[in-house]
Amino acid sequence: MTAATARAHPNIALVKYWGKRDEQLMLPAAGSLSLTLDAFATTTTVELRGEERDAFTLNGAAATEGQTERVTAFLELVRQWAGASEHAVVRSVNLAPTGAGLASSASGFAALALAASAAYGLELEPRDLSRLARRGSGSACRSIVPELAIWHAGIDDASSFAEPIAGPAMAMVIVTIDGSTKAVSSREAMRRTIATSPYYPGWVSSTERTLAEMAVACGAGDFTRVGELTEVSALRMHASIQAAEPPLRYLRAASVAVFDAAEQMRAEGLEAYATADAGPNVVLVCRPEDAAAVAARVEGLGQVRVVGAGPGAALVEEPVEPVEPAPDAGVPA
Ligand code: 2P0
């Protein structure tokens, strides 16, 4: 039996990824930049033990058909890369609290890419591991990388990957407004935005400029400029999404209240900048030394949690153990 276990963390984009140029190869329409977090890890064990088909358990329970299909399709790609045919047993544990509203596909496919590539005997350079993770979920290519990651859009499979970029020290204050699963997935919402939003071409062209400016601001360690560009990127992404038809709007009144709070804090000299993904929850970007003060300012607007910059995907020793069903499982009380 061959097995490997890997751990990866989610990331929050400062320059957002929204939309693909090539769905099959998962090439994004534009590049993006993110911070890998030090919380909410996903740990995944991949075991090859001669099973007839792939199996996937998540947090100790059988995954849904849709989740299993996505994992199987990804394993097929790993088998292609490795020239292997053996099926795999995948066990994954995700520490994002249910209801935190944090997407787990980035940490999930980053951990799976590393565990599966190791189990199938592939020894990938970080760049190739990022390319592989991208095929599972676009944002997963950034969770391979520690701390700040820049995902180059690239022109083909070989040139679309994430790598580290130096920048100012940052913390993030996550304000969870609603942790329920979103009605329209990011993947589907991206398609709808591309197909119907008149602002989508503007989003793509402006993002290339924002990313170039962000890279300069990161290189200069200019936290203020990084924060300003972060908020610009988020609001432009939401503007293009909101112009889709039928309309899509992720930001709720309570989300906008957190953007207002950031504006107010800045007016008072406390630098915080807001961003939001494909959901109502808002993340405030600030200097690490300001995190406690920023968090205190948004208590009451949602469930608040401070996180920092975290590690890239890594192999770990302890496997995710199978959960034995309780002896009386299925027996009515
Ligand atoms: C991001 N998001 O840059 C953006 C901002 C959501 C809003 O990446 O279709 O799960 O698997 O590539 O990566 C969420 O989309 O989508 C995302 P797929 P993914 O973080």
What keywords describe this structure?
alpha+beta, Ribosomal Protein S5, domain 2, Alpha-Beta Plaits, six-stranded mixed beta sheet, 37% helix, globular, binds ligand 2P0
Tell me the layout of helices and strands.
Layout: E1 2-8, E2 11-15, E3 20-22, E4 27-28, E5 32-36, E6 42-48, E7 55-58, E8 61-62, H1 65-82, E9 89-94, H2 105-119, H3 126-136, H4 140-143, E10 148-151, E11 162-164, E12 171-176, H5 186-196, H6 200-219, H7 223-242, H8 253-267, E13 272-276, E14 282-286, H9 291-298, E15 303-307, E16 314-316
Bound molecules: ligand 2P0.
Describe this structure in words.
This protein is α+β, with helices and mostly antiparallel strands and 333 residues long. The chain folds into two domains: 2-168, Ribosomal Protein S5, domain 2 (2-Layer Sandwich); 171-308, GHMP kinase, C-terminal domain (Alpha-Beta Plaits, 2-Layer Sandwich). It has nine helices and 16 strands. The protein has helices at residues 65-82, 105-119, 126-136, 140-143, 186-196, 200-219, 223-242, 253-267, 291-298; strands at 2-8, 11-15, 20-22, 27-28, 32-36, 42-48, 55-58, 61-62, 89-94, 148-151, 162-164, 171-176, 272-276, 282-286, 303-307, 314-316. The strands form four sheets. Strands 8-7-9-6-1-16 form a six-stranded mixed beta sheet. A four-stranded antiparallel beta sheet has the order 2-5-10-11. The protein has a four-stranded antiparallel beta sheet with strand order 13-14-12-15. Strand 7 and strand 8 (61-62) form a beta hairpin. Helix 1 (65-82) crosses helix 2 and helix 2 crosses helix 3. 47% of the residues are buried. The mean pLDDT is 95. Bound molecules: ligand 2P0. Ligand 2P0 binds at residues 13, 16-18, 26, 32, 103, 105, 137-139, 186-187, 277-278.
